Amino acid sequence: SVLSRAVRSIRLKMFAGLPELGISNGEDLKETLTNCTEPLKAIDQFQMENGILLPTLQSALPFLDLHGTPRLEFHQSVFDELREKLMERVATIAEGKDEDRYIKLEELLEKSFPLVKMPSIQPIVMQVLKHLQKVPEKKLKQVMADKELYKVCAVEVKRQIWQDNQALFGDEVSPLLKQYIVEKEAALFSSDLSVLHNFFSPSPKTRRQGEVVLKLTQMIGKNVKLYDMVLQFLRTLFLRTRNVHYCTLRAELLMSLHDLDISEICSVDPCHKFSWCLDACIREKFVDAKRARELQGFLDGVKKGQEQVLGDLSMILCDPFACNTLVLSTVRNLQELLSQDALPRDSPDLLLLLRMLSLGQGAWDMIDSQVFKEPRMDLEVVTRFLPAMMSIVVDDYTFTVEQKLPSEEKSMYRRTGWRIKMLYSGFFDTYNDMAFGDIFLHLLTGYLTLLSDEFGSEEFCTAVFDNFLLTSFSSKENVHRHCLRLLNHLHQKVLASYMETLMKTLEPPKQSSESVKELYTLLKEKLEASKKSPLEPEEAPSLDLGLHPVAVPSTPKTPL
């Protein structure tokens, strides 16, 4: 039958290497039995010639027959034991210090490689390949050409194949890079809206334990050439998509290799010490004065002729976790300046933070243009924008103090609504439309949960939705998703009449993704359920975010 012929073909291939080593196989036995006159004697002779060549064993074998133990079972158990011993011996030789250890392994490879297709021998061959620092080119090509062998060979062998086959390595890495982006986007669109537990909550060390980072780290090992290939893939994808998560992966990969003390790579990456220092800042969510001086030293230390390193530094600074840390540090610096009655232009640390933010935000343009020069800072950021930010901080402190006064002495304006309206008016002019990016909207929706009671006001809803979110949701599906995320979380707080209008506006068109349709359906079900059995109002979350108050001078000595 076709099946029997296929099985026979597979068996022939599996044992095809035995004759090369002077060992008889099934075909030899078949030929012997075909041409002999006494089959039993022929079988005995075949067993004698091809069995275990140990004289004292022959007299012991009949005892196994008396116990009903098949010869196959006995030989298989002996073979398994010898195979394990040999594999252990290979590892011992490779880990030893003998100068000729690799010569021994190459000799063993030559003897065993013809049997690489035999399932019982294959583990030995793969063990030898794994421990060879440099596998002979001919053997590498044979492994690469055979899909089954390539699949089962160790990553140490694959590294030697990949370093000269960028396309093959790209095929292996590409699914991991896609998975990484999917995981980041899933975190940004998480159904959990919280200020204290958001996209930026996991520590750098925790993030580096992710499956993709660990796999890429293992694939690279100590191979500088593979590391450079991955960095080139990340630069290319960043240029093609403008997706800043590739910048995060670039930083995480370097620090993952740092964690494993892979000096072969860390010592040749000019961004290593800068990334190490910045990683510590991200962990603390603050750039202190000491680390600020270190970071500035790295930036100022870029020598003439080495400006290309600015491209990688800008990519590392474009990492959202780095940007978040720089922005948080900027706000804390502004608070300190207020307590000292000082201006932004008087703070070297603040100017450095702005310099790094500017370098990070210019990463795409720099890599695209291949003009490796730090962007010039807009003076109005220091002379107008930051003083305006300080005035907002002063206003917030004033409101906090005012809340402690008797009710008749409080201001009559609605503070939250006024502040939201004022801030949203500036969102339309953000750099690269960042106000409608997933990272900003993820954080914004989280902070809006602190103001859930304000959604009972039509004025507030108009400011949030009509004047901001709904201005772009039809052209930007991500904004549509964030709107639905927010409403799924606090639909009970939204004014009923306004909620009805929102549901009509946010109904997904046919071409919408399944994610948008599922969120809308979920929201619809929640609204229907709340009509049938209204839930008791939830307690509003605390507005205390752990920010430390600073003293503000009662009379400014220098006008802002």
From TrEMBL:
InterPro entries (UniProt xref): COBRA1
Chain intervals for the UniProt region annotation (Disordered): 530-560
Record's protein name: Negative elongation factor B-like
Highest classification ranks of the organism: Eukaryota, Metazoa, Chordata, Craniata, Vertebrata
Signal peptide: none
GO cellular component: NELF complex
Gene: LOC107757973
Domain of life: Eukaryota
GO biological process terms, semicolon-separated: negative regulation of transcription elongation by RNA polymerase II
